[in-house]
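Problem: given the chain below (187 residues), write out its structure.
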Amino acid sequence: MRRVPYNVIVGVAGVVSGLFTLANAFVTERVLGEPIGLPDPPLFAVIAAIAYGVTANVCFTDGWITELLSRRVWGDRVEVFGEVAFTLGTIFSVLLTLLPAAFLLSVGAFKIVFHSRLIADSIPNCALPPGAKVASFPKDLPGPILNNFGSHLATLAGIGEQFNASDVVTVDRPSRRLIFVRHLGPK
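Solution.
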């Protein structure tokens, strides 16, 4: 009779954990450009939730098996053991279920707080040298410079464009970015 309340309590903790993880991913994607905590593809989250639920119930089953073995050794005195083991096991399961969301929220908060100190865009713009102009990429670059980029030109994000800035890789974004292009005149 304890399995139903256990599953409800741990299930509610799982839903809360999942909602906080999704909220964290939504906020960090808006602020940082990367959804921290959202697996790619999202189907992995569903598979992980199912695997976690099965594992939690296996652990629950271990609890009542332990209670039955204890009853054989200690007899009727084990009645309190079952209630205490159920309570402590449920508390542990809830905390374990909430742990990933707490960790991801901490990582997201840390990255948001220190975001301006961690990105190159927070460096103030350098003053243009006398006579220099800001050039657009790639149309204002001379041919020899474009040739130096070679095959990397296709995998280079333009100024201000989204790119993979960390080890979280989005397939449709390049992994490198051009910061600025300046033109001082014919050389």
